[in-house]
């Protein structure tokens, strides 16, 4: 196991979380991780040609930032994972902001 894996296990253990090993290639054993991996693949990686590890890390960092800040969730009553102030109607024009090179977009009201 590499040092990052050891560090991760040590950190998880310090939080009082007991790790459970799953069998390789057994997605039914860890549905949460498989759901997240599927979202990353469908929303991001299926549309981009990744050339190297550095580019992959940059793309994933951008995706996770967009995912946390802008993606809404039904279980959160259509709020995002991060707090966003409510933008009232009539407080400005709606402007589109591209994310991930235009693969995804978010919208904000900009005061005029």
Strand order of the largest sheet: 1-2
Mean pLDDT across residues: 81
Order of helices and strands: HHHEEEE
- The shape, in one word, is extended
SSE layout:
Blueprint: H1 3-14, H2 31-43, H3 53-70, E1 72-73, E2 79-80, E3 93-99, E4 104-110
Antiparallel strand pairs: 1-2, 3-4
How would you concisely characterize the structure shown here?
The chain has 112 residues and is of the alpha+beta class. It contains 3 helices and 4 strands; from the N terminus they run H-H-H-E-E-E-E. It has one domain.
Give your account of this protein's structure.
This protein is of the alpha+beta class and 112 residues long. The chain has one domain. It contains three helices and four strands. The strands form two sheets. The protein has a two-stranded antiparallel sheet with strand order 1-2. A two-stranded antiparallel ribbon has the order 3-4. Strand 3 and strand 4 (104-110) form a beta hairpin. The mean pLDDT is 81.
Which key features would you list for this structure?
single chain; two-stranded antiparallel sheet; alpha+beta; 112 residues
């Amino acid at each position: 196991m590499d040092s990052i894996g050891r560090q991760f296990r040590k950190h998880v253990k310090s939080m009082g979380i007991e790790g459970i090993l799953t069998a390789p290639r057994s997605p039914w054993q860890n549905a949460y991780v498989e759901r997240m991996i599927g979202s990353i693949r469908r929303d991001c990686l299926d549309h981009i040609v990744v050339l190297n590890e550095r580019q992959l890390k940059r793309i994933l960092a951008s995706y996770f930032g967009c995912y946390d800040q802008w993606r809404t969730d039904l279980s959160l009553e259509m709020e995002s994972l991060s707090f966003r102030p409510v933008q009232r109607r009539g407080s400005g024009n709606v402007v589109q902001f591209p994310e991930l090179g235009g693969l995804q977009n978010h919208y904000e009201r900009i005061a005029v």
